[in-house]
Structures are given as structure tokens and as C-alpha cells.
């Protein structure tokens, strides 16, 4: 997408060596900046995988509580299904109406289920899930921040200098160099003239056919 935009901006010189050279410089520039961002993202990811650490206790607690609620509800549903299956092994097959199934599951009380035998395990799983949510959010923020403050900033403040240096605008023979780069390829000019001639012939033929 970026190169397509660059191609549009430099379209005025399309067909010249200058156009090709400008796109080469842009591609090389973007590849190098993306390489740096990729290495940075891999370094952040390696840190996240190596060390489980956060100072944002509030976010961690909130994420863990949400995970515990989701895990607890999922496990409770499975226990309810086990109770109903014990009462009637074919209950899910016999009752196909979703609303009736929900009512049957809601009719099973916590007293019937008894205490959760795996509450401690669920809490441990919730803590792991909670930390994952915090670490994932942090990783995305750091990568996004790097793209915004480094990659985009480089495009804004460094690309122009890279183009000048790549073309050699500040060298002693800059005028001669640019003249060579901006010279139109003779073969392209010949093909363009031939296509224009063919277009003119087709238009004349079309006008003649319409007049008949």
C-alpha cells in the first residue's frame, strides 16, 4: 500500500530511470525500517515469554476476576448437564427447544450441585488467563507505540533525506545525474508513439463505421 502511494506520487516521472530509482530507494527504506520494527517486536515478545511480571495490579485483578467468572460459569454448566444426564441420559436429545433446555438447566440449584471441588484450580487458571490478558494488551500497545513513534516518524522525517541521498541531489554532479535519470527511455517513447497512432486509426475507423 505504501509503495502504491509512492508510485502514484512519483507517477509524473514514470517511464524514466528516475521513477525506478525513487521506488527502489523507497522500498529499501521501508524494508529496513520494517526490519527494525520486527526485531523490536520479537524482543518485546521474548521478554513477555521469559518473565511474568506486571505492576498494574488493578488490571490484573480485574482480568482475573472476569476469567474466574467465565470459567466458573462454564464449569457450572457442565456440572448441571451431568446432573440432568444422571436423571435422564437422553434429556438433551429429547428436548430440542433451546428455551426449554435453558429452563431445565436453570432449575438445577447450587444446593443440588454442592460446593465446587475445583475452585482452587479454577482460580489458578483465572490468574494465568488474567495475566495473559494484561501481557497481551501490553505487547500490542508497545508494538503499536513503536510503529507510531518510530516507523511513521521515520517516514515523515527521514524518507526525504534518504531520497536526496539515494539520487545524489547534493553531490557535485547532481545536475548531470538528474538529467540522466529524467531522460525518457527512447524505446518507451517509440512504443508510446506507436500506441497513439494505433489509437488514432481505431478512432477514425470507428467514426467511419458509425457514419455508414
Structure, explained:
- By secondary structure, the protein is mainly α.
- The protein is 82% helix and 0% strand.
- It contains ten helices and no strands.
- The chain is elongated.
- The model has no long low-confidence stretch (mean pLDDT 84).
| Approximate helicity band | over 70%
> Could you give the count of β-strands?
0
Secondary structure tally, helices: 10
Q: What order do the helices and strands follow?
A: HHHHHHHHHH
Mean pLDDT: 84
Distance between the termini: 48 Å
The shape, in one word, is elongated
Rg over C-alpha atoms, rounded to the nearest angstrom: 34 Å
Task: Report the β-strand fraction as a percent range.
Answer: under 5%
**Coarse structural class:** mainly alpha
